[in-house]
Automatic annotation (TrEMBL), chains A, B:
<dbReference type="InterPro" id="IPR022488">
    <property type="entry name" value="PPK2-related"/>
</dbReference>
<keyword id="KW-0808">Transferase</keyword>
<dbReference type="Pfam" id="PF03976">
    <property type="entry name" value="PPK2"/>
</dbReference>
<dbReference type="GO" id="GO:0006797">
    <property type="term" value="P:polyphosphate metabolic process"/>
</dbReference>
<protein>
    <submittedName>
        <fullName>PPK2 family polyphosphate:nucleotide phosphotransferase</fullName>
    </submittedName>
</protein>
<feature type="domain" description="Polyphosphate kinase-2-related">
    <location>
        <begin position="52"/>
        <end position="263"/>
    </location>
</feature>
<dbReference type="InterPro" id="IPR027417">
    <property type="entry name" value="P-loop_NTPase"/>
</dbReference>
<dbReference type="GO" id="GO:0016776">
    <property type="term" value="F:phosphotransferase activity, phosphate group as acceptor"/>
</dbReference>
<dbReference type="InterPro" id="IPR022300">
    <property type="entry name" value="PPK2-rel_1"/>
</dbReference>
């Protein structure tokens, strides 16, 4: 079940944002009737939204295939604290799409080559081609988040980046991109719970990193950095959404809705035939026997 | 329900291959009990195999994340006549995996830049990184199939390519790739049926190309070219599988099995912890309050 007005409810900024006032356990826009098992409800709702996501994606793909200069594009940007659920969101929401029509890029610690270029260099190289739904797992925003919190560059350098990011995203919009910028918002308690889960399950050890615990002491610094991002980089053409993400089932449902709304704004259609279908049918039905060897 | 011996049943070559003797409607290796609705059975079986595919893929991803020099890799190569079902296979089988851990590349008509390089240039650039399941939708084999049938290069040039392909794939195996080369085998009647379906449904017009009908007159030439590929490029370390593909439900089930077998041959495991989990638990449980702001 889709909830068409969710983007209005979850939008934050531009201007002052009080992240502490957004309860990570809340469930804005949730329909009244989710029943006794919200997880099961969410799975079913996402499967239903998924059918429509798939159709929208196919129209995007088909249009770009017929017209390589096709201008409608979509790019989702996912940001979150560690354990915030970026990977789970991709698995559960983006997993509804045709894998051939998605382009997912994760941005980790920059390589030496990446560091030798301006910070947007690796981002620009990773933009999705026409017809393909792009998903960034972390993004250029790390360059005003982790970089700021750890003082990896002078304050003036990261300070200049807000403007650079805004101009870059304005360019993307000029080029036809519909941006879906999502911050998955979790609480420190939920993060601890998830870290402890990773420690209890040997199939999750690989997701655990001892430095994540050290990072927790900087929680307030990160929240302040996020608030600045939300305040300063969310114009109407490239807004930020904050999705309460302590409840994974709500998070997945909300992100699926935000993506569906974004695709809906593109007003996609299937491209018309560029051939005479009656004539083609005659050719196929009238052809001489085609032998298999 | 997985069928562990399918790779033996579907393997063809090296040496003489009589494609005409393989019935595209046959269902080798199918369990006795598929019930009255084979489509429904196949969906359920693939979902079950999908859970294990997902787990195997996660182990591959996790291992490579911990050890970037990790040598185990997997690459599926899909080839087929037009309407053979490559896209449907990717949607239904590869769609079972985590989209973040797959790298799907389609090879269309080469660009001017690609043509200015040796034919394997664009292939080498598209190889999946460690930890990621690679899928080629068409491949270097087009350079001895469509290129041969349409005489796009002199016979001597494409003739030399069999050896080049064999040496290239030997290199891939040296580098740790497990290759899963699949030809989806359909009949000309099934192709006509699928082309007619595309003409009847406006949401499928974009998949229809009038030149596909012209290509049908070359069916025997393509089959002969495929037979040569199967005969000459299928050593034990890089075998070919021919999947009868007139029945989509069988095709999907068979390809899911072949991929699962390939991942199984890699004998993947989750990487062990590189930290002291008891100590980490103590750190998390003993930390001072982390404030949300």
């Amino acid at each position: 079940m889709a909830s068409p007005g969710l983007s209005k409810l979850l939008r934050v900024g531009p201007g002052p944002v009080d992240l502490a006032a957004i309860d990570p356990r809340s469930t804005p826009g949730l329909p009244k009737k989710v029943g006794r098992d919200p997880k099961e409800w969410s799975r079913a709702a996402i499967a239903e939204i998924g059918v429509e996501l798939f159709r929208q994606q196919e129209m995007l793909f088909a249009s770009a295939k017929e017209h390589p200069e096709y201008r409608k594009r979509v790019l989702m940007v996912l940001q979150a604290m560690d354990c915030g659920g970026k990977d789970g969101t991709i698995k559960n929401v983006i997993g509804q799409l045709n894998p051939q029509g998605v382009h997912i890029v994760g941005f980790g610690k920059p390589t030496a080559e990446e560091l030798s270029h301006p910070f947007l260099w690796r981002i620009k190289r990773a933009l999705p081609a026409a017809g393909v739904v792009g998903v960034f797992n972390r993004s250029h925003y790390e360059d005003v988040l982790v970089v700021r919190v750890h003082e990896l560059v002078p304050a003036r350098t990261w300070g200049d980046r807000f403007g650079q990011i805004n101009r870059f995203e304005r360019q993307l919009v000029d080029e036809g991109y519909e941006l879906v910028k999502v911050m998955l918002h979790i609480s420190p308690d939920e993060q601890r719970k998830r870290l402890l889960e990773r420690l209890e399950d040997p199939t999750k050890f690989w997701k655990y990193n001892p430095s994540d615990v050290d990072e927790r002491s900087r929680w307030p610094d990160y929240q302040a950095a996020y608030a600045d991002v939300l305040e300063r980089c969310g114009p109407d053409h490239a807004p930020w959404y904050v999705v309460p993400a302590d409840r994974k089932w709500y998070r997945n449902w909300a992100v699926a809705n935000l993506l569906l709304e974004a695709l809906g704004r593109l007003k996609l259609t299937y491209p018309p035939a560029d051939f005479d279908s009656a004539e083609e049918r005659r050719r196929l039905e009238g052809e001489r026997q085609v032998n298999s060897s």
